[in-house]
Amino acid sequence: VKVSLVDMDSAATVFSTSKETGATVTMPTDPRGDEQDVAKILTSLQDCVEKIPEELAPGVTRIGVAGQMHGVMLWKAKQGWHYNPASHRFTTGKVSRLYTWQDGRCTPEFLRTIPKPAAHLPIATGNGCATLLWLARHMPEALEGFDRAGTIMDYVVAMLCGMELPVMSVQNAASWGYYDCGSRLWNREILEEAGFPCDLLPRVLDPGEVAGVLRTTWCLVPPRIDVGAALGDMQCSVLPSLVQRGDAVLSISTSAQLSFQMHPGFLPPPADPSSPLQYYPYFQGAYLAVAAALTGGNALACFVKMIQSWLQDLGIPSIKEDLLYERLLASAQTCGDSPLTIVPTIFGERHVPAQRASVSNIAIDNLSVGLEYCHRQPERR
User: Model-level pTM greater than 0.85?
Assistant: First the structure.
């Protein structure tokens, strides 16, 4: 997680800090799942907020929240969080785990059993509505006791504002699936027929709209300041980089996206699950054309975890993750060009879910771990 203070007049960042959450759950409720501990994420977030310098905190006038799209978590109204007036911090209450965008339990076979959305974006595994449908069918106990749902950013906004009902921006609603950006409505009838718990669907606001007001002092941040509806990480990463129309922005983080803004008045075509190009709502009614890969830093993380697993299997003392990254980078810097052809799509692609990773052209003289690490680049087709 990351917290930044931005000067409203100059748009300059005056303070920034980040922290690793360590929130990944090693034993998810399904072996294909990808889940995170919400309490650890919230703790890390507030640890960062507490680092805001005392002389700067009173000057905070607005809070904006952005994060990974598609994911979903659930909580119980009036029991989802607790506030400690002594520490001015929140703790989680009755909440589920966060089911992330990398959750793979909605297999292609499962997706063929659920209705097609009346929306311009196709449904895919990891999308919030697809995950909730899977849970309703295969793990209904996971939904019991909860009556609110949203992305983890929506949860944070609801918590800060003391909201009875959460709200969600168009950006995050579209990322969940089954949301028609044209009519600005959820596909309630379609979802109800499929057995979806429609009472969980949040109210949707435009990106940039105020969701509510900070109800109480938060760490050192003063109360009664506006809190915006939570935004998508992809759109927010593009915003400062898109200097003029016609520019394209390449974002590489956990995954990767190549984006450019469509012309004014553009309306996205009907959903095409086989297309690598999709159109996501941006700001002020505009759309981004996005070629999104499911592979980025997550492939390197898998590579590191694979080495750690091999060491453990061989009975060799494990190396700390940070040190392992250092040694891999050092080894890669001493290597020249590699003849290896590596397709690191270990998570598949949204338009080709069955695609897997591969390494070819292996020879006796190119087995260096540095070559492998340095050239783990996706071969785009």
Answer: yes
